[in-house]
Amino acid sequence: MVAETVIAIRGLTNRFGKTVVHENLSLDVHRGEVLGVVGASGSGKSVLLRSIVGLMAPSAGQITMLGTDVLGASAADRAAVSVRTGVMFQDGALFSALTVRENVEAPMRERLSVDAVTRRALADLRIAMVGLPARAGDLFPSALSGGMRKRAGLARALSLDPEILFLDEPTAGLDPISASAFDTLLNSLRTSLGLTVFLVTHDLDTLQATCDRIAVLADRRVLATGTMAEMRDVDDAWVRSYFNGPRAHAALAVAGSS
Ligand SMILES: Nc1ncnc2c1ncn2[C@@H]1O[C@H](COP(=O)(O)OP(=O)(O)OP(=O)(O)O)[C@@H](O)[C@H]1O
Prior knowledge:
With 258 residues, the chain is an alpha/beta fold. The chain has a domain at 94-161. The protein has ten helices and ten strands. The strands form two sheets. It has a six-stranded mixed β-sheet with strand order 6-7-8-3-9-10. It has a four-stranded antiparallel β-sheet with strand order 2-1-4-5, with helices on one face. It is globular. The two termini are 29 Å apart. The relative contact order is 0.16. The structure holds adenosine-5'-triphosphate (ATP). Adenosine-5'-triphosphate (ATP) is lined by residues 16, 19, 21, 39, 41-47. It comes from Psychromarinibacter sediminicola. Keywords: ATP-binding, Nucleotide-binding, Transport. Pfam families: ABC_tran.
């Protein structure tokens, strides 16, 4: 069966002054998959994510998401696509002056016409879905641990019940136990909600535990795509050292023994 392509990127170029981050980059994301995006620091993973979700305008190229040419679309058509997506940024990007519940409600306030009681109930459902205790809804982000903050960021990304979830380094800064718990949560949510996930990460354990496919960014483009095992055969120095290094062996060994 051929998987439906929910994001198709063609000929993407991103430049900042004289710095060319992406040049003629192409990538497909399939419905229902968790795609891990890796690459050396500065290879343009976050810029790619930001281009897809409309936070920055690429210099050239085409991005089709959920059937809409998002770069060429009207603002209304772009908004109709963006309401079907959710984004979790690296630091959670929570509003510090709002409680967790108010943070989760924020996209609903902006994008949905639902009454306050329904909005609160939906927010509390998202908070429960990410494994936070009910009392966390009343807390401010500053009162949360790092792991809880990540979960609150995830609850907000799930606010609008998205089809596609974008995660930028979701386990960065977490201790290994919290990171592993986050991986487990992601696996359970992607199954129960039928999510497609675009996951930027450096975390080999997360790649191994959650991703169906991996895309490697290097030399301004997608150098290779494939499973974690397939990455070990890619003929490139960075890919070799990343996927055949001791940390990769440890991640694969843990997966093999579980
Ligand atoms: N707003 C900006 N203005 C100028 N240059 C930028 C801007 N955003 C990103 N860049 C540059 O684009 C390049 C890619 O950055 P990006 O943050 O996407 O890398 P990354 O692969 O996500 O790195 P890391 O793994 O360290 O997070 C870097 O050289 C960065 O300095």
